[in-house]
Amino acid sequence: MEANVEFPLAHTALDAAARRAAVDDALRRTGLSEFCGAYPKQLSGGMRQRVGIARALAVRPAILLMDEPLSALDSQTRELLMEDFIRLLADGAMGAVYVTHNLEEAVRIADRIVVLSRRPGRVREVVTIPMTRDERGGIDARGKLLSLQNELWSLIREEAIDAEREVQHA
Amino acid sequence: MPSARSSMLDRAPSQGTQPDESKPRPVEFRGAGFTPSAGRYSGWIALALVIALWQLAGSAGWVNPLFLPPPSAIAIAMYKLAMSGALWQHVSASVIRIGSGWVLGTVAGVIVGFGIGLSTLARGVGITFISALFPIPKIALLPLLILWLGIGEEPKIATIALGVFFSTAISVYSGVDAVPRNLIRMAQSFNVPFHAIVIRVIWPGALPSILAGFRITASVALLLVVSAEMIGAQFGIGAFVLQAGNLMQTDQLLAGVVILSLFGLAVGKLINMLEARLLHWR
């Protein structure tokens, strides 16, 4: 697993010690340090996804592109990883472009949500969340987030219906 | 759970057809799938039984020993062959041919297979030629190869190499094709250089298929070495078996066959070990 995280670094100019440090840091930030020597077959789906994220973090990117990172996971793992993302983004050192169909993920993780239309994929609306991510953790934020979620849903509901019909026809 | 089932059957008449709703009814797990597992000893016992029966048939005079010599006669023939030194001469001649032919064919096959798996041009050209040439029974080329390379070891080795080459190339390129594209894309998105993607992503990903190919090519090599040696060779297991047949020495003939079987088994074990070593991450 370490080798998996180190893989993209192996062909950079970094020396072994710097690579080691970057890998350790990435593993620590994704909570994987204790599973260093494990093989992918020994890891759960959530941990495998974390390894992928650790691998991306190890190159110290300015922006992380995540395309539906939680879509293949069960709901508990999804919840845990969402908390991880919120923690990872907390220090503001790294930005992220996060693609999702899940509105709850959108309103909990994003600062700004760009709603895209169906093909040809134009920007329909840009919604800014009026709270910091810390504020969203509180119980009183629940209602606000839920109404935001509903607002977003009303924006895309018609299109979702069309998309569904299209799939049925295909 | 046969006991639970029989107890249910026992009480069935007294309660009519109504099942007892108040008690949880034990249900046998039915969804285990068909998972036959080879027992540890059953195979050996069956083998021993067949050999014993065969021996009995020979000793009791049920079959003519000329047509089916008993295992004891075969063992004696093998012992004599080993003592006279002829066994090693034949075995080593065959092993050298198989070894060099297999290595040549495998190296070329792996290189061409990777070429086909990785390059569009090589794929177009390579698949055409492989499809055209793969179905040819390679032993049919032996006379031509003898004309080209002269009488000696070269045409036999070349026949084996050709037979091994095509199977290897096919299993390598299908292995390369089967490497998950996501893994390759991941490496590309991290700007990993081409050679590193080939060595660290594609090679391990294709390895299971390549090793499965080795299993096939090992038997192809064995088949071809025997055929080639039957067509023209002084030494070698194939030549030995043919010679024994011509002299009606069926005990020696079968001794040669047993050696071939043992050789095949040994190669199979070797590949098992290789798989356990190289694919332990699976």
Tally the helices of chain A.
7
The largest chain-to-chain contact, stated as pair and per-chain residue counts, equals:
A-B, 10 and 10 residues
Q: In angstroms, what separates the terminal alpha carbons of chain B?
A: 34 Å
Q: Report the span from N to C terminus of chain A.
A: 41 Å
| SSE pattern of chain A | HHHEHEHEEHH
Summarize the biggest pleated sheet of chain A.
Answer: 2 strands, parallel
Q: Which oligomeric state applies? A: heterodimer
The SSE string of chain B, one letter per element, is HHHHHHHHHHH
**Could you say which structural class the secondary elements and strand pairing of chain A correspond to?**
alpha+beta
Q: Report the radius of gyration of chain B as a whole number of Å.
A: 27 Å
Largest sheet of chain B: none
Q: Report the portion of residues of chain A in β strands.
A: 5-15%
Number of strands of chain A: 4
Return Rg of chain A in Å. 18 Å
In total, the number of strands of chain B is: 0
What's the pLDDT, averaged over the residues of chain A? 80
Structural features, described:
- The complex is a heterodimer of chains A (170) and B (282).
- Chain A has 170 residues and is α+β, with helices and mostly antiparallel strands.
- Chain A is built from 7 helices and 4 strands; from the N terminus they run H-H-H-E-H-E-H-E-E-H-H.
- In chain A, the strands form 2 sheets. In chain A, strands 1-2 form a two-stranded parallel ribbon. A two-stranded antiparallel sheet of chain A has the order 3-4.
- Chain A starts with a helix and ends with a helix.
- Chain B is an all-alpha fold.
- Chain A binds chain B through residues 7-8, 10-11, 39-41, 52, 55, 59, and chain B through 186-187, 190-193, 196, 200, 281-282.
Describe the secondary structure blueprint for this structure.
The complex is a heterodimer of chains A (170) and B (282).
Chain A: H1 2-6, H2 16-29, H3 45-58, E1 63-67, H4 75-90, E2 95-99, H5 103-109, E3 112-116, E4 123-128, H6 133-136, H7 141-169
Parallel strand pairs in A: 1-2
Antiparallel strand pairs in A: 3-4
Chain B: H1 2-15, H2 42-59, H3 71-84, H4 86-118, H5 120-133, H6 142-149, H7 153-177, H8 181-189, H9 194-231, H10 237-246, H11 250-278
Helix pairs in contact in B: 3-11, 4-5, 4-7, 4-9, 4-10, 6-7, 7-9, 8-9, 9-10, 9-11, 10-11
